[in-house]
Amino acid sequence: FIAAHVVNNIPAKGQRKWRGMLLVPWVIPPALSTLGWWWLFDPTYSGLNWFLGQFSSLEIPWLAEPFWARFSVILVNTWYGAPFFMIMYLAALKSIPEELYEAASIDGANAWQKLIHITLPMMKNIIAITVLFSTIVTFANFDIVRVLTQGGPRNTTHMFATYAFKLGIESGDIPLGAAVSLFMFPILAVFAYFILRNVRRRTSEI
Questions:
Q1: Residues with Cβ within 8 Å of residue 201, at least 6 apart in sequence
Q2: CATH number at residue 138
Q3: What is the pLDDT of residue 48?
Q4: Would you state the pLDDT for residue 189?
Q5: Nearest alpha carbon to residue 100 among 120, 72, 125
Q6: What's the DSSP call for residue 116?
């Protein structure tokens, strides 16, 4: 949201360049980009640890400890998904009539008040839809976890998709793997129901 807000305030001539640059993580195949991140996190040849070593003796076990492994997966998933949020929020920001901001300025509203009372209320529906879409994609995420950690260490970074693959394909327990893969459906269905119900209610109020 912050990136979208910053890009939206850039003059029109420079917006196209910045939009293109910010979309780069999203257009690179996730398995390929995750492989690059794996090299940065690799305990033997870690580019990040080499960089940190220039300033201190700190070496972080990025993929060896559960906490840092989860942090690494979240970081890569955020890096990959942020451009989608940015482009959706940017489109929503451009759909807000400028007259609302002009009227608020006449009434003496500052930038923070405009954000709280105009921007965010006008973007509630698109925020809800993007959160729903992101949740579904994250639950079903396979490439990032499979390439980066393979679910380790000690099965602490598995998503439903990778855990179902491990049980059904690698371990040969196909019924259990199928059960795990189907288990996420009712969870996502309930989540989607409440999100979409709120979106419909706000739309009808408008």
A1: none
A2: 1.10.3720.10
A3: 85
A4: 87
A5: 120
A6: I
The tokens describing 137, both together, are 């994609």
CA angle 127, 70, 186 (to 5 degrees): 55
Neighbours of 130 (CB within 10 A): 20
Helices 124-139 and 174-205 sit at what angle, rounded to 10 degrees?
A: 180
Domain residue limits at 79: 2-205
- Structure tokens given for 205: 């109020």
CB 69 within 8 A of CB 63: yes
CA distance linking residue 179 with residue 173, whole number of Å: 10
Q: What is the mean pLDDT of each run of 10 residues along the chain (206 residues)?
A: 68 71 82 88 81 80 90 91 84 86 88 86 86 83 88 86 89 88 85 84 69
Distance CA 201, CA 206 (A): 9
CB 127 within 8 A of CB 198: no
Closest Cα partner for 10 from 18, 22, 1?
A: 18
Could you give the dihedral angle defined by the CA atoms of residues 143, 133, 190 and 31, in that order, rounded to the nearest 10 degrees?
0
Residue 42 burial (CB < 10 Å; 0-12/13-18/19+)?
A: middle
Show the 3-state SS of 19-81: HHHHCHHHHCCHHHHHHHHHHHHCCCCCHHHHHHHCCCCCCCCCCCCHHHHHHHHHHHHHHHH
Structural domain total, the chain:
1
